[in-house]
């Protein structure tokens, strides 16, 4: 679908405070689109982090029995013996599957596995069923209980909060720009997107980010998924791909032909999508997030995943419960 987005207001938001600079992303590229996961056997970029990742997950907290029995949502998960997560297993930084081992690793994958351990107890991190979602299907799959939760670089917005609950936020990201690596010097920020052909995912925060921050863009194409947007960029049908930085970093790590440029220019808090009908789920998952932030698990997970591709110290985690109005 191609749409003409009205001229933006050029009201650039402050870059996400928790997102370090991404000026140097050389470490984000691998030689193969089939690169192993960060915690997978023989991982190339994240090989040194493999044992670190596994140790972080194995050392995560476990909820008190009273916390689980006091939550119908958590009790149902414990009774079926697994946590069903909606998301992706195709993002090299946040959630990627190693086809040789079926092991899923990354920041969002780690949050998922830690949540499963918190609910199911020792070894619970191994009891996760991963179901693919898209930006078009996430809310529906939460609402109809196809999944227990969605953990998928899922930005919390006021519009989405009308449909589902969000635990968190658990990470602050922001909208960024991805270009063909050959163009990384000519497009470095929103000011360079005037008159350019852009692509973003349908039903994503990228649409509003373009409206608010890009003056007189050319045609803006909206496509159903990340893979289609990357293909449009590489095939030179568009000049830049605008979306949440977390997704774009995964693309850059997987494919040296695309590069993230500049700093994030919006603030996008990630949350865990939950069914509004399970109010007890929100309380329990927020308690889980507070636990992994306070005991240092969150920081260790960041260092073993996102910290492998973004330079600098781990940021302070966001305040749980601090949601957009």
TrEMBL record:
<dbReference type="InterPro" id="IPR006311">
    <property type="entry name" value="TAT_signal"/>
</dbReference>
<keyword id="KW-0813">Transport</keyword>
<keyword id="KW-0732">Signal</keyword>
<dbReference type="InterPro" id="IPR051455">
    <property type="entry name" value="Bact_solute-bind_prot3"/>
</dbReference>
<comment type="similarity">
    <text>Belongs to the bacterial solute-binding protein 3 family.</text>
</comment>
<feature type="domain" description="Solute-binding protein family 3/N-terminal">
    <location>
        <begin position="83"/>
        <end position="309"/>
    </location>
</feature>
<feature type="signal peptide">
    <location>
        <begin position="1"/>
        <end position="26"/>
    </location>
</feature>
<dbReference type="Pfam" id="PF00497">
    <property type="entry name" value="SBP_bac_3"/>
</dbReference>
<dbReference type="InterPro" id="IPR001638">
    <property type="entry name" value="Solute-binding_3/MltF_N"/>
</dbReference>
<protein>
    <submittedName>
        <fullName>Glutamate ABC transporter substrate-binding protein</fullName>
    </submittedName>
</protein>
